C-alpha cells in the first residue's frame, strides 16, 4: 500500500510539472498537431502598457532557442494564445497586421498581402475575442495555416509556409511585438 501511495504521489507530481503555467494560464508540455507530436518551446505574457493582453505558448517538433531556426524549421508548429482581457476583433487584427509589417519589407508584404487579408477577414468574422478566449494558429505542412478560435476551425487553411513564418515573425522577428516575450517563447526566460 505504501508503494502504491508513493507511485500515485510521484505520478501526480509529474503531471503537475508537465504543464507550463503563465499568468494563471496552463499550457500542455506536449500536444498533437495533425500527425505530429509537438513540445512547448516557451511561453509568456504579451503586455501593452501595464495591461496583460494575452498569454501564449509556442509549440515545435523540437525545442530551439534560435529565433531564425524556429521560424525556418520544417514540420508542424502551433501558436496558442489565451486572451487575458477583452479585445475587439479589429484591435487583434490590427496588432497582427502591424507585427507582420514591422518585420517585412514592402516587397515581402506585397507577396503576403492577399493571404494576410484573408486571415484578417477570418479573424474579424470569428467574433470579438473576450477574456479567456483561445486563439490557436497551426502550421500544418500538408494544408497550410489553420486558425482555430475557442475550439472551432475558422475559415479555410491558408497555403504557403512563408505566411506562417510571417506570423511567427510578429513575436520572433527582428522587431518583435515584445522583446522579453520573444525570449520567453525561445525558452530563454529567467
TrEMBL record:
Query: Which residues does UniProt assign to the signal peptide?
Result: 1-19
Single GO MF descriptor: intramolecular lyase activity
**Record flagged with keyword Isomerase:** yes
Keyword vocabulary terms for this entry? Isomerase, Signal
Span of domain Chalcone isomerase: 19-187
In the UniProt record, does the keyword Signal occur? yes
On the tree of life, the source organism's domain of life is Bacteria
Q: What is this protein called?
A: Chalcone isomerase family protein
Amino acid at each position: 500500500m505504501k508503494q502504491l501511495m508513493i507511485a500515485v504521489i510521484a505520478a501526480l507530481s509529474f503531471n503537475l510539472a508537465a504543464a507550463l503555467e503563465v499568468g494563471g494560464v496552463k499550457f500542455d508540455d506536449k500536444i498533437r498537431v495533425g500527425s505530429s507530436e509537438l513540445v512547448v518551446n516557451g511561453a509568456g505574457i504579451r503586455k501593452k502598457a501595464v495591461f496583460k493582453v494575452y498569454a501564449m505558448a509556442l509549440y515545435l517538433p523540437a525545442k530551439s532557442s534560435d529565433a531564425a531556426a524556429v521560424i525556418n524549421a520544417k514540420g508542424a508548429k502551433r501558436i496558442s494564445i489565451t486572451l487575458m482581457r477583452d479585445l475587439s476583433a479589429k484591435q487583434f487584427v490590427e496588432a497582427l497586421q502591424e507585427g507582420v509589417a514591422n518585420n517585412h519589407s514592402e516587397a515581402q508584404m506585397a507577396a503576403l498581402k492577399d493571404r494576410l487579408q484573408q486571415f484578417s477577414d477570418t479573424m474579424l468574422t470569428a467574433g470579438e475575442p473576450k477574456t479567456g478566449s483561445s486563439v490557436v494558429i497551426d502550421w500544418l505542412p500538408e494544408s497550410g495555416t489553420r486558425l482555430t478560435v475557442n475550439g472551432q476551425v475558422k475559415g479555410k487553411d491558408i497555403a504557403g509556409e512563408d505566411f506562417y513564418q510571417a506570423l511567427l515573425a510578429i513575436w520572433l522577428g527582428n522587431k518583435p511585438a515584445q522583446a522579453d516575450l520573444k525570449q520567453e517563447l525561445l525558452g530563454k526566460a529567467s
